[in-house]
Amino acid sequence: MKAFVMKEIGRVGFMDKPVPKPGPSDAVVRTTSALICTSDSHTVHGGIGPRKDLTLGHEAVGIVHAVGSEVKDFRPGDRVLVGAITPDWGDLASQNGFPSQSGGPLGGFKFANRKDGVFADCFHVNDADANLARIPDSIGDEMAVYCADMLSTGFVGAEKGNIPIGGTVAVLAQGPVGLMATVGARLRGAGRVIGVESVPSRQKLAREYGADEIVDFTSEDVVERVHELTGGEGVDTAIEALGADITFQTAVKITKPGGTVSNIGYFGEGEFVRIPRVEWGVGMADQTIATGLCPGGRLRMERLLRVLEAKRVDPTHLTTHTFAFDDMERAFEVADKKLEDVVKVLITF
Amino acid sequence: MKAFVMKEIGRVGFMDKPVPKPGPSDAVVRTTSALICTSDSHTVHGGIGPRKDLTLGHEAVGIVHAVGSEVKDFRPGDRVLVGAITPDWGDLASQNGFPSQSGGPLGGFKFANRKDGVFADCFHVNDADANLARIPDSIGDEMAVYCADMLSTGFVGAEKGNIPIGGTVAVLAQGPVGLMATVGARLRGAGRVIGVESVPSRQKLAREYGADEIVDFTSEDVVERVHELTGGEGVDTAIEALGADITFQTAVKITKPGGTVSNIGYFGEGEFVRIPRVEWGVGMADQTIATGLCPGGRLRMERLLRVLEAKRVDPTHLTTHTFAFDDMERAFEVADKKLEDVVKVLITF
Amino acid sequence: MKAFVMKEIGRVGFMDKPVPKPGPSDAVVRTTSALICTSDSHTVHGGIGPRKDLTLGHEAVGIVHAVGSEVKDFRPGDRVLVGAITPDWGDLASQNGFPSQSGGPLGGFKFANRKDGVFADCFHVNDADANLARIPDSIGDEMAVYCADMLSTGFVGAEKGNIPIGGTVAVLAQGPVGLMATVGARLRGAGRVIGVESVPSRQKLAREYGADEIVDFTSEDVVERVHELTGGEGVDTAIEALGADITFQTAVKITKPGGTVSNIGYFGEGEFVRIPRVEWGVGMADQTIATGLCPGGRLRMERLLRVLEAKRVDPTHLTTHTFAFDDMERAFEVADKKLEDVVKVLITF
Amino acid sequence: MKAFVMKEIGRVGFMDKPVPKPGPSDAVVRTTSALICTSDSHTVHGGIGPRKDLTLGHEAVGIVHAVGSEVKDFRPGDRVLVGAITPDWGDLASQNGFPSQSGGPLGGFKFANRKDGVFADCFHVNDADANLARIPDSIGDEMAVYCADMLSTGFVGAEKGNIPIGGTVAVLAQGPVGLMATVGARLRGAGRVIGVESVPSRQKLAREYGADEIVDFTSEDVVERVHELTGGEGVDTAIEALGADITFQTAVKITKPGGTVSNIGYFGEGEFVRIPRVEWGVGMADQTIATGLCPGGRLRMERLLRVLEAKRVDPTHLTTHTFAFDDMERAFEVADKKLEDVVKVLITF
């Protein structure tokens, strides 16, 4: 089968690989739609270290191609969604309530990291009964695929942010994950959502997805502006959806005492992420810094699909580009170099 | 001043009373809009025992008429909202996180219970700085007044229900509080909201306020139907918004293991409220029964006003009747006897 | 191999059964020590319906006899503890945070319910890597076996009770589970633990295990006495460790507004468990009723073993009787009929 | 009356001040015992900026000398404890659940910060009914005074650390607050408490107060050693009880994915407190950083007194030095310069 791989750091391309075989509890899924993620770029540029001929991609839906002997709830032909994170559910971290950390820190993140990813004709899924979810007929593949990572990661930023109904929330950076965090903040009942973003097309999407105010850090001091918008208080919750030291510092500074900084950004560089000491209340302002990795698993995916089924949000407006799998090289270039105001690139198979 | 009072059990009417005077931390508010609540009926019919010449009403907005010497943040002329519950914030129950229980069980409920209520030209508010909230210009009195009890009580049903994003919720009874619980379930991100209601006009409102499905208990078995709608599982959260033994039993029966029954109904009669033993998992299904009384206080009211300001919901569709204060007797009759498909009765001053 | 079974409702005895075989992820354990539980009696008397030749018992430790091909962390010869509850970790209820409810309500409870129990020379354990725990050398079998159910159930009563440091707790009934709930309340930092019990030998154990006060319901009014002991307030947390309608009612009555009734009692009879309406604050006192089933799994067992290893508690004082497995019939009679002031009966193999 | 003040940065001494007068809700307390805190040193050396003739001290007990007209529960002559933090209970931060932040960040910290402290013959307490607690006869002043800050701060480190029963906890630095955090970890049910400390006398106290293991950072690599002690996993909870950048980094490094770093250290210097990026799981390890300021208020103090009354801990072993108030200058020198292996200095009046 055809697979789009990272050949080595900095180099991608197609190669031929055998169709994977499922273990007793596993499934193999034939890909129908996939999305390119910023993490794919990080990986290619060496963010998680060297890899050789590793199939890229972790956001996909497809049709079950084969299942292992112990799989009970899925059959070949089923149309399914797979979370970007596919936990080992019996692991001690899962028993502790953190399945994304099963098998070690960030260990639930297997696709295009610990094993081949989803940019291929077929891909392998561990523990099919626990990690696949059937897609309802009313939801198309190109919509369902957003649950795998974008909705799950964006929403967990809101969930871990402990947002009260009517609370104030700032979402720092309105990329695809930040936009879905904006949706998540609305879904938790935020009374005012402030999107921090400078790119006009993303500002527009932010308003569409529920931001009540936009703050442009290129023309305004974010800390001052957010305090102004919140009567001098700061927000109940700041969601860091970029993964940059300076943005994280801003998140701490705009969050009120007793509030929560909820991080869903991937910090790709530097030895430290720095907390501004004084604005952090010298460590005594009852502020919480929460972090999370995209929740996966069947239950999570079923719940996200229900959100789509009930038409609470239409994530397909994030799709700025669509390519056939055969054009994957160009597709990856667009995403990697952030060409043409790209937000998300959809790949069809 | 004119006040509409409960003269004794079963008898209401106008009487003249002196304008109250504020203590050092208190305020007196001149009423501009008020709402009649089912609890007013309960009270008149003896639900909280005998009262003599007690001014009725606990949902109101108005203009500050006078403030005590220690009040810092409010001045005569300010347009303000007052929660139905006005806690004593220093009380041990408040320190424990339950201000509605300050001064004893349900002790935050003072209006038309422990002291005169709001159906009068003026009414008294304890601890003005902590219990008043300024109303933004963009929100009319007839909308803001819904925060006092309807939004606060309805929403707390959702908040205590521990609803996951994409979770399933049933709201039992779509009276005004149940309708606002339906809104609350949507505000917390429910993926499917099932409204249980038999009255057509309320079913219609339920759909408008966010119910995805309606179950009519007069034509369907609620337990069967809810299990059918949830793939046999039951809901994550059932909100009891009526206060009837049979409804409470249904709530327990339709909630899945690990789920939450969130009660905001006032149980007015009977020695017991009964939990169905077997469906409760013989006490071992990891099910939680949460209860709450309308949260009050300035912060809560400010957050609810923010929800209105951001146009997340328009509660004024609950207003089926409007009367001037002079017509209070007829207004009360309509509300008390549930005439003319009444939902909420607004009183203007 | 020899197994002690429930032949039919009301009749027990030995029979010969084949040694079970492990599936790919499973283990078979050779029993070394076991405890008889009140639930075994319930089961024999028909509490969970008819069973034929079902091996009894769910509290055991032993030596791994055989493991399936997929088991990674355990080998024959390992000395292991098995929780009374052995969840399916990939199940949706487990993903939802309630592994004891995996496979349906109370579905994690498999031993002597859905499959043969542990009163046999050998028994079968599903998902060995996730459900077994290695016993440290410093802990004897006759101590470790208490983790399986007694510590896990007793402690979860305290954990779900949301006890603040310095809070007040009542534990209703000081049977073995109630005694371990008393220990659990102390482990969570309770400032005053009130044990409700009438049997002198159990009162003595209650004091030894950390009850600061004993209330004897045969000579005192429990509701009055607890209010007296708590300055009229009621307790922060009442743990129901019996499973009786009247005890449950008392638990509600002695819990303060905002407090928690934490149920770990198994309610074996009656159509309803009844909440006293008025003392429950007519459903509005911010009181929570939490319920739980014994948590199982390797992580839980490892943590409980750590509690023993650190000598925080010595549960072996619960052992009032010890019998060899060959004397199981007499042992069961003592436990079943509650002869000789029995608390727990230990079976050695 | 006599007061021990900070005359200016770096200079302390006695001066005469008038006895304060209570406002309507306030009390004035005649000091009987007080403790010197490291924060007093910080303050004198300019940690919170310049102050002129500010009375020092925030840990005290005493006898009520006078009360305002609105005070209901206390009378002159009552023996009382006052928390180091005396919140404004009606403030929005208090309504939000964070009374220590009332009146602005860390605003509940009034003594020797926003107003005169307790090192004087008498001191003023705002909102007496909400901020005083009666001391039971069985507890001496020299013991009760430890509740004001040491127990409250140490314990909140454990409470915010989300420690599971049987969990593993490291407490970094075994000064007086760290030692009480060690006690707090035990009170929450930790299965293994690791105290990090190099001073022998404090190591000894750490063992006495419940540390199961001691790690000496001068002779061992703390990160390696803690991983060794926890089977390579890291701890469930690390409590930072020093307030140093390097210690904070260690806390992050030794905490497992899904675990909590609970900070109770006051960070007195540097622009930033730095999170080690990689060991923090690049912001995605589901790790939480919680912070808190000493909880105050009557309920908290009553609960802490209950812990002492029940003899769960004897904090007086922290008292290494006792001086009469007249010898305050020498007392302060001992505490300030950390002479003679000082832990806590008690002042008697």
Commentary on this structure:
Chains A, B, C, D: One of its GO terms (molecular function) is zinc ion binding. Chains A, B, C, D: This is Alcohol dehydrogenase. Chains A, B, C, D: Residues 7-347 form the Enoyl reductase (ER) domain. The structure is a homotetramer of 349-residue chains. The first copy, chain A, is an alpha/beta fold. Helix content of chain A is 26%, strand content 27%. Chain A folds into two domains: 2-149 and 294-348, Alpha-Beta Complex (Quinone Oxidoreductase, Chain A, domain 1), CATH 3.90.180; 154-291, Rossmann fold (3-Layer(aba) Sandwich). Chain A is built from eleven helices and 17 strands. In chain A, helix 5 (150-159) crosses helix 6. The longest helix of chain A is centred in the middle third of the chain and has 12 residues, at 176-187. The radius of gyration of chain A is 20 Å and the shape is globular. The A-B interface holds A 155, 158-159, 164-168, 184, 187-189, 191-192, 212, 302-307, 309-310, 312 and B 155, 158-159, 164-168, 184, 187-189, 191-192, 212, 302-307, 309-310, 312. Strand 14 of chain A pairs antiparallel with strand 14 (272-276) of chain D.
